[in-house]
TrEMBL record:
It comes from the Bacteria. PROSITE patterns: TPP_ENZYMES (PS00187). The gene is iolD. InterPro entries: DHS-like_NAD/FAD-binding_dom, Myo_inos_IolD, THDP-binding, Thiamin_PyroP_enz_cen_dom, Thiamin_PyroP_enz_TPP-bd_dom, TPP-bd_CS, TPP_enz, TPP_enzyme_TPP-bd. NCBIfam families: myo_inos_iolD. Residues 223-354 form the Thiamine pyrophosphate enzyme central domain. This is 3D-(3,5/4)-trihydroxycyclohexane-1,2-dione acylhydrolase (Decyclizing). It comes from Celeribacter arenosi. Residues 594-617 are annotated as: Disordered. Residues 595-610 have a biased composition (Basic and acidic residues). Residues 434-569 form the Thiamine pyrophosphate enzyme TPP-binding domain. Gene3D superfamilies: 3.40.50.970, TPP-binding domain. Transmembrane segments: none annotated. Keywords: Thiamine pyrophosphate, Transferase. The lineage of its organism: Bacteria, Pseudomonadati, Pseudomonadota, Alphaproteobacteria, Rhodobacterales. Residues 37-132 form the Thiamine pyrophosphate enzyme N-terminal TPP-binding domain.
Length: 617
């Protein structure tokens, strides 16, 4: 190793280091950091901004409109690259950094790599209190940046330039670790950013990273295979980890060899094509009758790459109480849930290790396939135009018929995750991003922008298609402008049901009257309709409003042919437009005491299903 040094500021050293980190993907060497999203303020413009100016060709900086949406875009970028590449977000001290908290939580919940480089108060404290500083009278070291400890996998505050020699490799190791993947947060005091240090030149040598492929303990494999051999009604739950581990082929081969039916989680929604004979459909609260039908009868469940959240498990009522679970997961925490027999390791290696002579009973597989055929018939009718007032399902059906198989579909919290999960027919592997790990409204358009940045680097001729409701649109829409500004075309469907209609549905289903969710039922407001077409057009997008599914089809064709972002608006019914089948039980807190008979009855009805709930055994 050379003893030579180079004198750089802390900020310059951080950027030079990132600029020299690479990863090989499909034989192509790429920078592991694809660039960043930034909004400058006094806490990051003078030093970090100076360093970033000199690497614009290799670490492009996308100007954000809102720090939270920058974080969403970075998370979607990481999803598109299957966690093999990441983006950084830089925000100024104070409210700019605080705005990143929600997106950091989203990345944490979804196990996604995002690097946050955020300004901080002066280490010397000589000018304290400074603009946007929060003062804690009994602890001068405590500030906004400490809030990120709860939503980061790696957290550090740089108090001396030399510290990044240890901190940056540790942050990257965390973000690229399959078991510990998540956001890394580095607090950068404004004075420390500009302090200089004689860094060893070797620190900036080019490094090519690789994602670790952890093999399972063979005794765990033996135990799991022995349990599988006892199965008369086996089932595979395929989660998002299947794609992150590159195990789609191994999953398909394992299922075909054994004849075991496969169901998908929301994150694993595009692990298999919709017409694969062993794909029995999405499972859980936003699932399908077919998947839920076999789940309640399965005796051995292989949970592959899933964290088994409540929408997958029906709040742990979807499975028989005596069903045995084999947890195949690179993360020990997820592999051991609900007394699972854990097989900790890379999904591809684990599935290959479990391959043997086991065959699922043909009558069980046939039963599962018959249930899927019934579900397919329901979906075909559900998405059919004119079957009822305008609905999410009809819009989904139109897009599904007209899109390219490799187009990217993006949706998030509200009613659309359930509707996309239930009704979308997967045309190609890894083409669906339904953000439901943190269930975060506002992700859709920002996430679409981040996904499009990633998509344009490998599949520039394909489209990113965003489904969003009017509520999410109003919450966060400024990245329509970002997409136009950066030339990253999106197709955005704004499906307007007059408010937070899915929460209104939950409100009604639990016996409550409509209140403060639909615009029409907001007591402190005079309802009026937002002109989403005019609003989107004002941000530079092509925009039009359609009256029905037939007009939507023609507008979608125009959007496909366009060379910039298009926004298509359609009203959908708030009450009659929902998918009514496919739902598992979901535990929500309901009032045990109420003056309303309807609320009391709903509480009794909800509690009547509780005896089915597994208690962790």
């Amino acid at each position: 190793m050379s003893d030579q040094t180079i004198r750089l500021t802390t900020a310059q050293a951080i950027i030079r280091y990132l600029d020299n980190q690479f990863i090989k993907i499909d034989g192509e060497e790429l920078r592991v950091c694809g660039g960043g999203f930034g909004i400058f303020g006094h806490g990051n413009v003078t030093c970090l901004g100076e360093a970033l100016y000199n690497v614009q060709d290799t670490l492009p900086l996308y100007r954000g409109q809102n720090e939270q949406s920058m974080g969403f875009a970075a998370a979607a970028y990481a999803k598109q690259w299957l966690r093999q590449r990441f983006m950084f977000c830089t925000a100024s001290a104070g409210p700019g950094t605080a705005n990143l908290l929600t997106s950091a939580a989203l990345a944490h919940a979804n196990r996604l790599p995002v690097l946050m480089l955020c300004g901080d108060a002066f280490l010397t404290r000589l000018p304290d209190p400074v603009l946007q500083q929060l003062e804690h009278f009994g602890n001068p070291t405590l500030g906004v940046n400490d809030a990120f400890k709860a939503v980061s996998r790696y957290w550090d505050r740089i108090t001396h330039p030399a510290q990044i020699i240890q901190s940056l490799p540790a942050a990257l190791a965390t973000m690229l670790d399959p078991a510990d993947c998540g956001p890394a947060f580095i607090a950068l005091p404004q004075d420390v950013q500009g302090w200089a240090y004689d860094y060893p030149e070797a620190f900036f040598d080019k490094k090519v990273h690789r994602i670790r492929k952890q093999a399972p303990d063979m005794q765990d494999v033996v135990d799991a295979y022995a349990l599988l051999q006892t199965a008369k009604r086996p089932m595979i739950i395929a989660g998002g980890g299947v794609q992150y581990s590159g195990a789609v082929a191994e999953l398909t081969a394992f299922a075909e060899e054994s004849g075991i039916p496969v169901v998908e989680t929301i994150a694993g929604r595009a692990n298999m094509l919709s017409d694969h004979p062993l794909n029995i459909g999405p499972i859980g609260v936003t699932g399908s009758n077919s998947a839920n039908a076999i789940a309640e009868q399965a005796d051995v469940i292989l949970a592959v790459g899933t964290r088994l959240q409540d929408f997958t498990t029906g709040s742990w009522t979807a499975f028989a109480k005596d069903a045995k679970i084999i947890g195949i997961n690179v993360g020990r925490h997820d592999a051991m849930k609900h007394m699972s027999l854990p097989v900790v390791g890379d999904a591809a290696i684990c599935l290959a290790s479990l391959t043997g002579d086991y065959k699922a009973p043909t009558e069980w597989t046939s039963f599962a396939q018959a249930e899927r055929a019934k579900w397919d018939a329901y979906v075909a009718g559900n998405v059919k135009p004119g079957n009822r007032p305008n609905s999410y399902a009809q819009a989904i059906g139109v897009v599904n018929e007209l899109c390219d198989p490799r187009d990217r579909i993006v949706a998030a919290a509200g009613g659309l995750p359930a509707e996309v999960t239930a009704n979308w027919r997967t045309l190609d592997i890894g083409t669906v991003d339904v953000e439901f790990g943190f269930s975060c409204m506002g992700y859709e358009i920002a996430g679409g922008w981040g996904a499009r940045i990633a998509q344009s680097q490998r599949e520039p001729d394909k489209d990113t298609i965003v489904f969003t409701g009017d509520g999410s649109y109003l919450l966060m829409n400024s990245d329509i402008y970002s997409s136009v500004l950066t030339g990253k075309k999106l197709i955005i469907l704004v499906l307007d049901n007059g408010g937070f209609a899915v929460i209104n549905k939950l409100q009604n289903n639990t016996g409550n009257e409509s209140f403060n969710n639909l615009i029409a039922d907001t007591p402190t407001a005079t309802p009026f309709a937002v002109d989403f077409e005019a609003h989107a057009a004002a941000m530079g997008a092509n925009a039009e409003t359609v009256a029905n599914a037939a007009e939507l089809a023609e507008a979608f064709k125009r959007a496909k042919a366009a060379d910039k972002t298009s926004v298509i608006v359609m009203n959908v019914d708030a009450y009659e437009g929902w998918t009514t089948e496919g739902h598992a039980w979901w535990e929500v807190g309901t009032p045990e005491v109420s003056d309303s008979n309807k609320v009391r009855d709903a509480h009794t009805d909800l509690e009547s299903t509780r005896p089915k709930q597994r208690k962790g055994l």
